[in-house]
Specification:
rod-shaped, 3 helices, 95 residues, mainly alpha
Amino acid sequence: MISMSVRTLSVIAAVCLWNVERHVAIVALVLGALLPYVAVVIANAGREKPPSLPSTFVSVPPRPELPTGEPGDISGDTSADTSAEARTERSYGQS
């Protein structure tokens, strides 16, 4: 109600001052045009607040890491053994 009264007065002032003080009339017209926007923004500000903003970050589970050590030095792995005896034992199934 108050903002509409101020807007009405500013438009009436712009009409009355158009031939007398054109700069003041233009300022009054701009005020009359912008006042409804400002009134709506103020009226809607703070009305609804979400409890918390949604997170757009999706956490990815960590990937498993390989054990550290020298190449071919993985415990329990005999595939790195390239000696002739080891290849022969594996191919014939002998222990």
